[in-house]
Design the sequence.
């Protein structure tokens, strides 16, 4: 819900916990201080703000702040003084400077996507609770080595920056599970050969919207010359929290064929707005999302509503996911977003895995390749743990449950090198 400055000034919002104002503001409204006793979430996205007042520290109960799509050029270090602040969003500003010691002590989730940051402060290493850090679409040339102390970091998006190498410590972080690092000079050298055909936009009659994500919109379409129904994904073209849409398109195509991947039929050419697009099989309406994306509370973990699984179903899902993950890593693709919300499932527990927005190509012959795979193995472990928590209690004493629990623990163990790789996991699940 969007509130109004008029209501705020008229004292009609007393006791409010969450405030959202989007009225082209150029200054921070002082009337917000009247909510100091209750306000926990402040969303001032889509305004023209460029700085925060020093007395914002009056808002001691703030836990979450969003300033997306404003005009900040420097990250406001005054936020470090808010004791309960755990989530900060500054997506799509013009930030080029992040000062030292600018972060609050309880920071868990920091969004700096699509800015102009060249350098991150060394004090990033003091963010001991940081779990989620999307910083794609900046100008960062290297990550500060102090970030090796961010032992709770689970999700990192550093796509579309200026990184020339990956630091050794990154893939040794004990909890790192979801990482996207495409669109950097170190990955740009990997060219994808493709024999996939392109089809003219005017040969498709676009019908209803099926869904949309950060990178684009998927619609149902009639393929006129072939007289069949398909799905068409048109990319928005700007950097997303995961990375660049063209990298997603390349990875979707390079992933090739696997029974648990959504089949790609071709590319779209001659779009009236010169946008890129992919042509895909239309998925049967029997398929639904296995889970919902993380929320503000769960941070990095998916949300499952009213779902229960049998052990047999969990094993079937796990086998399929291990198989498709092995297929991708054999090609040298790190999916980067191995989550239940990117998995479609039907009544027979058959699955389809999609959304390559965070996917990154890497060299299978590099020294670090097995570490990259084992980071994704931790994401697989998180998925398995979530599914096992949804298993009917009557099945927990069975012989299989402890074995799956043990496999989960192997995938989640903090020493990256001691985790199994996907071929080991698949073998264990088959046996």
Sequence:
């Amino acid at each position: 819900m969007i509130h109004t400055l008029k209501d705020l000034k008229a004292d009609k919002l007393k006791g409010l916990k969450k405030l959202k104002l989007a009225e082209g503001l150029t200054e921070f409204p002082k009337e917000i201080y009247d909510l100091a006793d209750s306000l926990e979430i402040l969303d001032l996205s889509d305004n023209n703000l460029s700085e925060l007042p020093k007395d914002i520290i009056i808002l001691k109960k703030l836990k979450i702040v969003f300033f997306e799509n404003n005009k900040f050029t420097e990250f406001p270090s005054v936020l470090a003084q808010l004791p309960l602040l755990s989530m900060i969003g500054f997506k799509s500003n013009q930030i080029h400077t992040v000062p030292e010691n600018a972060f609050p002590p309880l920071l868990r989730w920091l969004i700096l996507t699509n800015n102009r940051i060249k350098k991150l402060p060394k004090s990033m290493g003091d963010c001991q609770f940081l779990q989620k850090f999307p910083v794609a679409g900046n100008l960062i040339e290297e990550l500060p080595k102090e970030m090796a102390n961010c032992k709770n970091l689970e999700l990192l998006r550093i796509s579309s920056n200026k990184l020339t190498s990956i630091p050794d410590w990154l893939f040794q972080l004990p909890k790192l599970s979801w990482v996207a690092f495409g669109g950097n000079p170190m990955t740009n050298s990997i060219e994808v050969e493709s024999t996939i055909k392109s089809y003219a936009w005017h040969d498709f009659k676009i019908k209803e919207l099926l869904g949309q994500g950060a990178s684009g919109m998927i619609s149902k379409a009639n393929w006129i010359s072939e007289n069949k129904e398909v799905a068409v994904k048109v990319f928005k073209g700007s950097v997303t929290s995961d990375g660049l849409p063209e990298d997603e398109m390349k990875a979707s195509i390079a992933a090739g064929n696997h029974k648990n991947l959504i089949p790609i039929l071709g590319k779209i050419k001659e779009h009236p707005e010169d946008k890129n697009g992919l042509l895909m099989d239309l998925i049967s309406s029997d398929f639904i999302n296995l889970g919902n994306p993380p929320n503000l509370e769960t941070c990095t973990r998916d949300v499952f509503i009213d779902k229960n699984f049998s052990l047999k179903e969990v094993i079937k899902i796990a086998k399929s996911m291990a198989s498709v993950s092995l297929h991708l890593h054999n090609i040298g693709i790190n999916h980067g977003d191995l989550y239940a919300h990117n998995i479609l499932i039907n009544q027979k527990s058959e699955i389809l895995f999609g959304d390559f927005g965070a996917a990154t190509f890497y060299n299978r012959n590099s020294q670090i390749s097995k570490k990259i795979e084992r980071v994704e193995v931790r994401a697989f472990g998180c998925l398995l743990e979530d599914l096992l928590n949804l298993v009917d209690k009557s099945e927990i004493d069975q012989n299989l449950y402890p074995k799956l629990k043990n496999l989960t623990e192997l995938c989640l163990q903090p020493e990256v090198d001691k985790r199994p790789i996907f071929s080991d996991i698949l073998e264990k699940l088959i046996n």
